[in-house]
Specification:
Blueprint: H1 12-31, E1 36-42, E2 45-50, H2 55-81, H3 85-114, H4 124-142, H5 149-159, E3 165-167, E4 173-176
Antiparallel strand pairs: 1-2, 3-4
Helix pairs in contact: 2-3, 3-4
Length: about 180
């Protein structure tokens, strides 16, 4: 919805492509092992150990990476095509807050344990806070997904080329473009 790709979701088979890997992963988690085959106690805490030869692990990693890359691309495309500076800034905030969260989380939580590198405990829940803060900032500072009349008025006023001064009935200046 944010990337304005609703037309893609009009095709029924897209839902199958989107949800079937998730259902497979859910089934695998319920019936066996998907990512972590064991947990090992180290000086820095519990660390997951994965099986680097597991088809399911690498299928999960590729699916996860593909979803994030597709989301990043659609967000970047939406931001780049937008004529509104507010939307461009929102897109940049979302993208630049997601990249470190995803990159470090993927490496530390999935790749390192899969190849038996025990450097850091699982930190992706903490790293996801970077992305959450980025989205929070885009929502509060730039009114992400906020389509109120006040936002529309502010956008229109900011684009008027002539000098515009809005005052209240007492003559107090409320806004100047």
């Amino acid at each position: 919805v944010l990337a304005k790709k609703e037309k893609v979701l009009e095709r029924w088979w897209i839902y199958f492509l989107l949800y079937s890997p998730a259902l497979l992963f859910l089934y695998k988690v319920w019936t066996g092992v998907l990512t972590a085959t064991d947990f090992v106690w180290t000086d820095i805490g519990w660390i997951e150990c994965g099986n680097p030869r597991s088809f399911w692990l690498w299928f999960y990693i590729l699916h996860l990476a593909g979803c994030f890359v597709a989301g990043l691309y659609m967000t970047w495309q939406w931001s780049a095509k937008s004529t509104f500076m507010r939307e461009k800034k929102q897109g940049r905030i979302i993208i630049w807050s997601l990249i470190p969260s995803f990159s470090f989380g993927l490496v530390v939580n999935i790749v390192f344990p899969s190849v038996d590198i025990r450097v850091l405990p699982a930190i992706s829940p903490i790293l996801s806070l970077i992305w959450a803060f980025g989205i929070y900032y885009a929502i509060t500072r730039y009114k992400l997904m906020d389509f109120t009349p006040q936002v529309a008025i502010n956008e229109i006023i900011s684009r008027v080329k002539d000098l515009l001064i809005l005052t209240d009935p007492k003559g107090n200046i409320l806004k100047v473009n």
